[in-house]
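Run log, item B.
One chain of 124 residues. Sequence copied directly from the ordering sheet:
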Amino acid sequence: MSESPDRYDISKEILFGALERMDLGAVAGAQTPWWNRTLTQVNDAVVRLAVMEGDFHWHKHDNEDEFFYVLDGALTIELEGGLSVRLDPGQGVTIPRGRMHFPHAHGRTTVLMVEQASVTPTGD
């Protein structure tokens, strides 16, 4: 069962500027699920770090693709039409714009996401 998006701790404020070194393990290790922050901006895209556990919710991004890359743990992204993609550490996938998807984190999972800065993390 998915929960309400208001349980998520999400901020689009950029944590690190250009040339600032990031210790992703330390940043993620200090957080509890469902935590999501924008690490840095690269041109028109942002790199976000998320700590997940359990189910997110069905959502889509009407105008932007979204790239997921698992650092640790495991993530299954269920897609409309009955398809799903499982990602283990070191694996990633791009979800096309407009595609309904439902992330399921198997235990505590840390994920990098790359997407346009305009993306609303909880979906459109």
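Observations after the first pass:
- The beta strands are 9-14, 35-42, 45-55, 66-72, 75-79, 84-87, 92-95, 101-116.
- The two ends are 20 Å apart (CA to CA).
Flagged for discussion on Thursday.
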